[in-house]
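Work Package 4 report. The design task specified in the project plan requires that, given a folded chain encoded as structure tokens, an amino acid be chosen for each position. We show below one input record used in the internal validation round.
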């Protein structure tokens, strides 16, 4: 009798884990998702110069969407020079690699369009009509494109190629924008910028499982340089999963730091980084995470092993580091200067500014391409 009760108990535990996405075993992983290579490092495929056969011959470019200018600058990574400028839909926000790595999509939210780029040639294609695509992700199995429709307050699941709508998921909070997936791919955490909330979403069922508001105690009471108005509370931005898949990190630009949360869901703890904490980037060796502090022109360096900040790099003369990516060899952190009409090339070894390149007005979610990895989860390049 005791053995039977224990078996029932184990089956119940397994059901809970499957429901909320804990772990990354073959039994619990999202069907169709490529197998995790290393349970201790979900970014194992992102090691330096580990380019897949799909992207290994692509030219090394940087694609910079200029929100205010309505353009995308194409920059040669070796020459550090703009080689082309393309007009796109109104307010391009991010340039996003597709799940299969074969297309880059320019997200123009107010232009209601996704413009495809062929990364093999750098040529821009015909825009596809998509409502309010502020940001774009892809489910780990490659089954859906996931459009973060900020103004519509929706997460829209679409066909990853045609962009035909599969399901519109209305969310209980305004400002939906960034996300990242659990190690097993069954759930993802998304941030709602304008309500100070985060969501847990079921990948296959396409439903919201849980919601929580971030604490207000650390929110700055000073005037926000982002909107020219008094800060009204937390405003979560980028979301990133730790290499071991056990912890989520959520940048909060109004609390000037990063929230940590046990994956797939739990209570949050606070880590102060700097004014306007915004973007989160795991280094190629998966030992550190780079955190952009947009309002103070700095980048904080977080050690996963030590579980603490180990350095802060300040951009000479100030700046507004926002979104970007790390070069294929892992040596340069390319980041947009949102309010300075420039992008920065920063050494990942010592934080020194290597170069500053002038671009169009309002550079935002630039994409460094190609990058290592087997498939893309979207944004400016989240690879696994």
């Amino acid at each position: 009798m005791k053995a039977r009760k224990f078996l029932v108990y184990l089956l119940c535990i397994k059901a809970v884990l499957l429901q909320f996405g804990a772990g990354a075993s073959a039994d619990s992983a999202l069907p169709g998702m490529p197998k995790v290579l290393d349970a201790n490092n979900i970014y194992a495929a992102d090691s330096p110069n580990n380019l897949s056969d799909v992207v290994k011959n692509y030219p090394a470019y940087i694609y910079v969407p200029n929100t205010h200018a309505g353009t995308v600058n194409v920059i040669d990574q070796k020459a550090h020079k703009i080689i082309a400028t393309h007009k796109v839909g109104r307010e391009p926000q991010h340039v996003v690699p597709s799940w299969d790595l074969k297309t880059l999509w320019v997200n123009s939210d107010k232009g209601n369009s996704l413009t495809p780029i062929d990364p093999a040639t750098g040529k821009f294609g015909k825009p596809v009509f998509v409502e309010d695509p502020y940001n774009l992700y892809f489910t780990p199995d490659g089954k859906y494109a996931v459009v973060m429709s900020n103004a519509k307050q929706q997460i829209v699941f679409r066909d990853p190629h045609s962009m035909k709508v599969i399901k519109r998921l209305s969310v209980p909070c305004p400002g939906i924008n960034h996300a990242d997936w659990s190690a097993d791919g069954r759930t993802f955490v998304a941030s709602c910028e304008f309500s100070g909330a985060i969501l847990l979403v079921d990948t296959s069922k396409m439903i919201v499982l849980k919601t929580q508001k971030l604490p207000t105690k650390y929110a700055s009471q000073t005037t926000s340089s982002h909107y020219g108005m008094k800060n009204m509370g937390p405003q979560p931005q980028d979301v990133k999963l730790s290499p071991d898949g056990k912890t989520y990190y959520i940048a909060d630009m109004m609390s000037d730091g990063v929230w940590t949360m046990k994956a797939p869901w739990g209570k949050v703890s606070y880590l102060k980084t700097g004014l306007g904490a915004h973007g989160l980037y795991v280094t190629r060796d998966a030992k550190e995470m780079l955190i952009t502090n947009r309002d103070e022109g700095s980048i904080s360096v977080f050690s996963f092993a030590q579980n603490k900040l180990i350095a802060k790099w300040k951009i000479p003369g100030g700046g507004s580091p926002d979104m970007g990516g790390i070069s294929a060899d892992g040596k340069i952190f390319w980041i947009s200067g949102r309010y300075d009409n420039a992008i920065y090339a920063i050494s990942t070894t010592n934080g020194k500014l290597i170069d500053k390149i002038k671009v169009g007005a309002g550079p935002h979610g630039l994409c460094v391409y190609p990058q290592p990895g087997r498939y893309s989860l979207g944004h400016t390049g989240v690879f696994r």
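Residues 274 and 347 are 19 Å apart (CA to CA). Validation will be extended to a larger panel in the next phase.
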